[in-house]
TrEMBL record:
Keywords: Signal. The keyword Signal applies. Residues 1-23 form the signal peptide. Residues 271-477 form the Peptidase M28 domain. InterPro entries: M28_fam, Peptidase_M28. Pfam families: Peptidase_M28. One of its GO terms (molecular function) is metalloexopeptidase activity. GO terms for biological process: proteolysis. SUPFAM superfamilies: Zn-dependent exopeptidases (SSF53187). It comes from Hymenobacter rubripertinctus. This is M28 family peptidase.
Length: 501
């Protein structure tokens, strides 16, 4: 089914140069803080803190992409833009660019039975991907799934139950290791002839199950044209059970019976777009794009009695930073236009940035650089990272050198370069809104203070933000953006740029 915006809410929302030399030939001049000192003073810690408590508190219930909570938070952000004096730059003279999400999930009536145990998907068990499946098969338990256990069980044509086990050896977080194991071991078992796969948590896996299994309840999301989110037909069902199932899963002679049905529907999300026009007659036609995302995870399974995943660092910090940048550029406009884009549904797979990068509200060729704000208020006060600064993620040495000069002129963070490497197990470069622009060849970098223990939990709350650090991160972005917006030529693009995946 298609969910429509209530008409009153929708009405309210609608109102509301010459090529540069390569970096190897010439480095951009150092950024001088005095060039923009008046505008830097417009970036205030008190504003950041006030705005973050307003946006990242419980009022907007975690701003889950594609929900009324995301839309209400987006309307609040647009009102702040209007109050600052930033011009609407969305569709039809508004601050908004609406787009549709497609969601595919299991129907609430779907069932899963093992022996005498009736399991409700999303409650007593997790079904990793929505699928249509209606059959009964013999269940065999194969321990941890060693080759010897598989050979003995003769799994072809059977449902296979396997104990999760093992630990990462390459520095990756256990959560990411476990999700990879669910995917990879299931594929191996299906290739060997299994008609269904059932994973059973051990003690370490149970901790991940308790905190992260909720992400499978929503199903899969994408833009309507994405093949991956259409109803997936007769894909082999893969289930994940809690540790308590270990008491009975190995009993002989059990049948696996499933009646799963997938459904697909669309509903709206939104990008929020504003600009501060440039002052130069020609350069104002070019845009320096400041990027972030307004959504987070919404209301989910409670952890220690708290069910609101506020996303204060991820990514209310980026949201309030862009408001502060607007105030600075409004006070002292640059030669180029400063374009501010809040991307909806980032947590659903960078959907807002994918949509805007292919259907921008300004000419695509006018976007000379993208400066993306993603989680900027936690971890050590003197450390940060600039993603897009290390090959193969480096697509503009020119832009990176400008950002590094701005860091030296401003906050002087010690920069962590490990998270930007292609070998880093978290793949952090590929998980934020600069990525769709980089894939188009537009110079793009990401400002971040990296992950922390409260990432995607209800503990990511406004009271835990380091506001002094957030101020310095915002100033760093501003000094970079100011330099890019005022230089004679746009940042040069890296010849032969190509991402590793």
């Amino acid at each position: 089914m298609t969910l429509r915006l209530p008409s009153l809410l929708l009405a309210g929302l609608l109102l509301a140069a010459a090529p540069a030399a390569t970096a190897q030939q010439r480095r951009p001049p150092a950024v001088k803080a005095t060039q923009a000192k008046n505008a830097v003073a417009a970036i205030r810690e008190s504003d950041l803190k006030r705005d973050l408590f307003a946006l990242g508190g419980d009022k907007y219930r975690g701003r889950e992409g594609g929900t009324l909570d995301e839309l209400r938070a987006s309307a609040w952000l647009a009102e702040q833009m209007r109050a600052i004096g930033a011009e609407p730059a969305g569709d039809n003279g508004t601050y908004f660019q609406f787009f549709e999400l497609r969601r595919t999930r299991l129907t609430p009536a779907s069932t899963l039975t093992i022996g005498s145990h009736a399991l409700r998907p999303g409650h007593d068990a997790v079904v990793v991907a929505p699928t249509n499946a209606h059959f009964t098969a013999k269940l065999v338990f194969v321990g941890t799934g060693t080759p010897a256990e598989l050979a003995k069980a003769k799994i072809k044509g059977k449902a296979v139950a396997v104990q999760l086990s093992g630990a990462p050896t390459d520095g990756i977080s256990y959560r990411r290791y476990l999700f990879g194991k669910l995917r990879e071991q299931a594929a191996e078992l299906v290739k060997a002839g299994a008609v269904a796969v059932v994973f059973v948590s051990d003690k370490p896996a149970q901790a991940v199950y308790d905190h992260w299994s909720h992400i499978f309840e929503r199903g899969r999301y994408g833009l309507p044209a994405d093949e991956s989110v259409k109803i997936v037909g007769d894909q082999v069902p893969v289930a994940w059970l809690p540790m308590s199932a270990a008491e009975w899963i190995g009993q002989g002679g059990q049948q696996f019976s499933t009646d799963l049905k997938a459904e697909s529907f669309t509903y709206p999300s939104v990008n929020i777009v504003a600009r501060i026009p440039g002052t130069d007659g020609q350069l104002k036609k070019e845009n320096v794009l400041f990027s972030t995302h307004q959504d987070h995870d919404g209301v989910r399974a409670a952890v220690a009695g708290d069910s609101i995943y506020n996303g204060a660092d991820d990514n209310a910090t980026g949201c309030v930073a862009l408001l502060a940048l607007m105030r600075a550029f409004k006070q002292q406009p640059a030669k180029r236009t400063a374009l501010f884009v809040y991307h909806g549904a980032e947590e659903r797979g960078l959907l807002g940035s994918r949509y805007f990068s292919y259907q921008p509200t300004v000419p695509k060729t006018s976007i000379v650089a993208v400066l993306n704000a993603e989680m900027m208020g936690r971890n050590a006060p003197d450390s940060a990272a600039l993603l897009g600064s290390t090959p193969p993620h480096l697509n503009s040495s020119d832009l990176v050198q400008t950002a590094l000069a701005a860091n030296q002129a401003g906050p002087q963070f010690k920069l962590d370069t490990e998270w930007d490497k292609a070998t880093h197990p978290e793949g952090w470069y590929f998980r934020s809104d600069h990525l769709p622009y980089a894939r188009l060849g537009i110079p793009a970098i990401m400002y971040t203070s990296l992950l922390h223990a409260d990432y995607h939990t209800p503990l990511d709350e406004p009271a835990r933000i380091d506001y002094a650090k957030l101020l310095r991160m915002t100033q760093w972005m501003y000094l970079t953006g100011w330099a890019v917006a005022n230089r004679p030529a746009p940042p040069a693009r890296e010849p032969g740029f190509r991402l590793e995946r």
